[in-house]
Amino acid sequence: MKETLMDILCCPLDKETLELEVTQTDQSQTETEIIDGELVCAECGTKYPIEDGIPNLLPPDMRE
Amino acid sequence: MKETLMDILCCPLDKETLELEVTQTDQSQTETEIIDGELVCAECGTKYPIEDGIPNLLPPDMRE
Amino acid sequence: MGVREEFDAWAADGRDKGMEARHWHTAKHALARMPVESGDVVLDLGCGSGYAGRALRETGAVARAYGLDGSPEMVGNARSYTDDPAIGYVGGDFNALPFTDDSIDHVWSMEAFYYAADPHRTLSEIRRILRPGGTFYCAVNFYEENVHSHQWQEFIDVEMTRWSREEYRAAFRDAGFHVAEQDTIPDREIDIPSEREFPTEEWDTREAMVERYREYGTLLTVGVVP
Amino acid sequence: MGVREEFDAWAADGRDKGMEARHWHTAKHALARMPVESGDVVLDLGCGSGYAGRALRETGAVARAYGLDGSPEMVGNARSYTDDPAIGYVGGDFNALPFTDDSIDHVWSMEAFYYAADPHRTLSEIRRILRPGGTFYCAVNFYEENVHSHQWQEFIDVEMTRWSREEYRAAFRDAGFHVAEQDTIPDREIDIPSEREFPTEEWDTREAMVERYREYGTLLTVGVVP
Ligand SMILES: Nc1ncnc2c1ncn2[C@@H]1O[C@H](CSCC[C@H](N)C(=O)O)[C@@H](O)[C@H]1O
Ligand SMILES: Nc1ncnc2c1ncn2[C@@H]1O[C@H](CSCC[C@H](N)C(=O)O)[C@@H](O)[C@H]1O
């Protein structure tokens, strides 16, 4: 995912702001691609994984 | 024209209420048809003819 | 010459019916998209022969259908083609619509809007008479991208506004509409002669005729009142 | 079984591409109608292979295109088909959209909406994330009037909502949308075998297949946020 996506993303549960924690990026592209990391809701603390460049914002109970 | 049309008609110039003056009707239909008459603006007094069942709401300067 | 003289002449020599037949090819597809409910009141601006209102009534789609036209001869013809008491026709001009605010559910107009003396004013008049959520279905064959329509002005004694797709969207928004859809509807029904019959009186090449009808067809812009 | 398991399996065995090919026949006509401007952000709900966003970007129609899907395998496939930096895909569920209020210009959804666990809630989520004037283009082949679609539920392990045309309009309005358009878009491209090849594995009669594709096609309902 690109960081520009953060402009419009929010926590699916309470619609509050997400904080981005980056573990791995790919700088080879024009815009930096976030490959691995986590999105954390500033309000409820729920964590959403970013894996293989894709943020998974399924509510935790639907993830598995 | 049918009298129900009066629900939505107004003077094209100032959008005020029109008053219906009926000269001739046709009662042979389910709903009375107004064949001849006049529509008069309650505000500006402009008169619009009803002829052969058709109200002519063209602004006076466009009538001829 | 004005709208009245020009189109009174068309109506008098039967061109209202000719237009109806040709326009129906694409108009019916646009009409079928209108989100009408059975209690609705629909108004056809520049109704010509008045076929759109009759079609909506015949399918039972709407409660009442009105047509407005600047040509008394057109309105007279339109009235003579039906005796449905829920259909009415009135003489009137696009610049000064004789309807009260919020009184109409949906406005339809086919091949007529661009004759408006002041199209921006006509749009704001349409917005005024529509209720919130009401739509304006504006269909035109004469528009900028349709290069084959450009010469039409030569044959008609009323000044025509030739907007592009984008200009239609912008003008709708300026008048306070949301733009919900814009589309070109192909005319798949018009008979296009085989290659060896070209050039015809009207068309230099078959490609041009195919492009005019099958590709550019009718430009539909749908505005919704917030 | 849920959306994830069902559609992860579809994605894993390549059915995302098969759907794209079939759905494109009608989807492209609906997409072409969207009133997009070049700065717009569009979201595809239940994006599958993600073709809609790619198409809108390839024609230069929009600034950014995002796709959301409940199946991580689908999203993974979709991402692998493009490296346009203005396209992004996210995992997520229709019931809890991870987008801020008023953040999206237009929402697109093809053959996906009716899988929502609570379609009324999904509509109000869509309305929440769209800006005023934003549109929801909702395209479905599975709907009440399309009798040939009724048996599809048997083959899919996710509960499907089968609304009629009128139920779609009513639900959109309940969620606060204005309904701007409703249409059935025929699939003119699917190959329909000649009479003597019927019955086929899927179709008893040629008439039924013609009705399914050429007549019922894809139901499109367009909602606009006031
Ligand atoms: N300014 C104006 N006010 C009212 N009617 C107008 C007008 N300018 C043109 N018209 C009417 O618009 C019509 C255009 S011809 C199209 C007729 C019909 N809608 C059809 O599809 O066949 C004519 O009947 C003409 O009289
Ligand atoms: N509740 C839900 N939330 C998110 N995605 C869902 C969903 N229910 C179904 N989907 C997704 O919707 C898609 C339906 S298949 C259609 C895919 C694509 N729009 C196309 O036209 O080909 C699947 O990818 C499925 O995973």
- CATH homology-level superfamily of chain C: Vaccinia Virus protein VP39
Number of helices, where a helix is a run of at least 4 consecutive DSSP H or I residues of chain A:
0
CATH topology category name of chain C: Rossmann fold
Strand order of the largest sheet of chain C: 3-2-1-4-5-7-6
Enumerate the spans of chain C where pLDDT stays under 50 for 5 or more consecutive residues: none
What is the radius of gyration of chain A computed over CA atoms, rounded to a whole number of angstroms?
12 Å
CATH level-two architecture of chain C: 3-Layer(aba) Sandwich
The low-confidence parts of chain A are none
* Number of distinct helices of chain C: 7
Summarize the largest interface: chains and residue counts. Answer: A-D, 26 and 28 residues
Number of domains of chain A: 1
Widest sheet of chain A: strand order?
1-2-3-4
Count of domain modules of chain C: 1
The total strand number of chain C stands at 7
Strand content of chain C: 15-25%
Provide the list of bound ligands, each named once: S-adenosyl-L-homocysteine
- Average pLDDT of chain C works out at 97
The largest sheet of chain C, given as strand count, sense and whether it forms a barrel, is: 7 strands, mixed
The helix fraction of chain A, in percent, is: under 10%
Task: Specify Rg of chain C, calculated over alpha carbons.
Answer: 17 Å
